[in-house]
Amino acid sequence: MIIDIYQIRLTASSEQVRAAETVLSEDEGARFGRMTVPWRNRGIIARATLRHLLGVRLGIDPRGISFDYGEYGKPCLAQKCEGHVSFNLAHSADLAVIAIGNGVPIGVDLEEMEDGVDHDLLARDVFSSRELAAFREMPRDQRRGAFYRAWTCKEAFVKATGEGMLRPLSTFEVAFEQEGDVRMLTVPPEWASKPWSLIRLTAVPGFSGAIAVGSPLIIARRHEVHGLFGLS
To answer: Which of these, 81, 131, 145, 182, could form a disulfide with 127 (CB 3.0-4.6 Å)?
Structure first.
């Protein structure tokens, strides 16, 4: 299974934002129009880039792409945009990540690693009792990175399943060692029949991210998006 991962900087000129807006649907434009700058501009660039990448993948005009939404709000391609393509998008601050695969559950999470956050307190809601015990045994100077590694893996998983905030993050476990492969340790029973892979995103200092995919043997192809839809 090949997963394409696109890293996008969301900083853009007013001209680029206006050009990106022309790709969006009417309801997308209205939704972003209610946001404040710079979140509005970042959202427009991220969504327009997603449409562009899906359009290239499907061989259609990005303005012709239609989305449906799952029971808990996860977007997917509408039936008329057939192609067995799955995708997910996450953004934090001025960085976004889009992952695109072929019909498998896929979820992305990205977080800016902020200072001044009480990670020990947040860990009580995010970790299982076993994870929390391992976390508290770590030296304090390693806990910040460990928290974000675990948190983004867990958020990516619940985005892949489409459950989002309805699935308590403490009900399943991931490995969050500083070195080594990322992996699921336990999986909720209703999802345990599917093999799950986790991909850690480490390319950008100050950010932590992960991709969860309902498939084994993942090959990750990484790309950067420069400017408006410029790929490398």
So the answer is: 131
